[in-house]
Amino acid sequence: MSDGPARVLLAAPRGYCAGVDRAIETVERAIDMHGPPIYVRKQIVHNRHVVERLTRRGAVFVENEADVPSGALVVFSAHGVAPSVHQNAAARGLRAIDATCPLVTKVHVEARRFAADGYTIVLIGHAGHEETEGTMGEAPASVVLVQSEEDVDGLEVPDPERVAYLTQTTLSVDDTHRIVARLRKRFPRIVGPRTDDICFATTNRQAAVKRLARECELVLVVGSRNSSNSNRLVEVAEAHGARARLIDYASEVREDWLAGVRTVGITSGASVPDELVQELVEAFRRRGADEVAEVSVAEEHTRFMLPKPVRAAGAVDYY
Questions:
Q1: Catalytic residue among 65, 110, 130, 131
Q2: What are the angstrom distances between the C-alpha of 191 and each of 64, 121, 122, 173, 288?
Q3: Which tens digits make up the pLDDT trace of 89-128?
Q4: Active site residue 131
Q5: What Å distances lie between residue 300 and 47, 178, 200, CA to CA?
Q6: CB-hemisphere CA count at 13 Å for 274?
Q7: CA–CA distance, 221 with 74 (Å, rounded to integer)
Q8: 28-37, long-range: CB within 8 Å, 24+ apart, which pairs?
Q9: How far is the C-alpha of 229 from the C-alpha of 237, rounded, in Å?
Q10: What is the spatial distance between Cα 227 and Cα 78, in angstroms, rounded to a whole number?
């Protein structure tokens, strides 16, 4: 192989956020307490490595609660589910543990509140993403989805004076601000959440990548293709002047990406274990990188309480 970059810069914060950490630990504790198999609706988090590791431990990932045997134990993913999923699970006699990130739950509560107050809710998000589907399911008759500024221009609502907006938690901060500005111009009386829906982890990781991109020719984002927040990190890096690539593992780095690169930046999505980042760093050390430094924009100390059924052995109150 040709000489690699001499300098490696690591974004901080990176990797696991509090909601992901909570969700993964929920599955691990459920397996420890009850033994395999433990069923998980959808991927617990959007990361290939995590899903494969939990599968080896005895987690069984299914697309729908209807795929879970009657009476079995099922964990709902960090992305949240619609009320209909809870109802379907209860009707099938499933024992359910809800690992929804508390910051996603906050958006669900806001959706119910705005709908009860008679607002049309404009949800900014990605069509087909589990988080978006779960939020829309809280008030399906009241929610319309927009994905871009252009979508705002075509919106038709029953009462332009009664419009609210909410957002998916893992969006591009800059893109979302532009969409909200367009909404405010179109609907001057629009109201929003009391605090931003884009979570602090998403915001911090994007801010770190902006700093990183100014000093690197190439930014490598460790994360899976179906991870919204990981894809946004690639977009942010490119928007701020660096080439960027999304990879699951160090072995996926291509030789032609490194041509002319003296400084490479590394970050990871919010569902990525840091061991994968360290493997990538070691790969560059073996290629001759003699400087590894961190670019930090914030420290994160938040931890979320685990769901009640897995806080202590012997707990049985699943709903």
A1: 131
A2: 34, 9, 10, 18, 53
A3: 999 999 999 999 999 999 999 999 999 999 999 999 999 9
A4: yes
A5: 21, 27, 9
A6: 9
A7: 31
A8: 28/54, 28/57, 29/306, 29/310, 30/73, 30/75, 30/97, 30/309, 30/310, 31/57, 31/58, 31/59, 33/310, 33/313, 34/73, 36/60, 37/72
A9: 13
A10: 12
Is the CB of residue 65 less than 8 Å from the CB of residue 94?
yes
- Distance CA(217)–CA(195), nearest Å, equals 35
To the nearest 10 degrees (0 to 180), the angle between helices 18-34 and 102-116 is 110
Bridge partner list, 163: 120
On the 0-12 / 13-18 / 19+ scale of CB atoms within 10 A, 305 is: exposed
To the question of pTM greater than 0.85 for the whole model, the response is: yes
What's the distance, Cα to Cα, between the start and end of the chain in Å? 56
3-state class of 61 per DSSP?
Answer: strand
Say whether pLDDT at 275 is over 90: yes
Tens of pLDDT, residues 224-244: 999 999 999 999 999 999 999
Backbone angles phi and psi of 110, in degrees to 5: -65, -40
Q: Do residues 61 and 43 make contact, with C-beta atoms less than 8 angstroms apart?
A: yes
Mean pLDDT across 177-193? 97
CA distances from 261 to 157, 178, 213, 296 (A): 50, 33, 13, 22
CB 228 within 8 A of CB 171: yes
Beta strand spans in the chain (E): 7-12, 38-41, 59-62, 73-76, 95-98, 120-124, 143-146, 163-167, 218-222, 243-247, 263-268, 291-296
Region of 220 (left: φ > 0; alpha: ψ -120 to 50; beta: rest) is beta
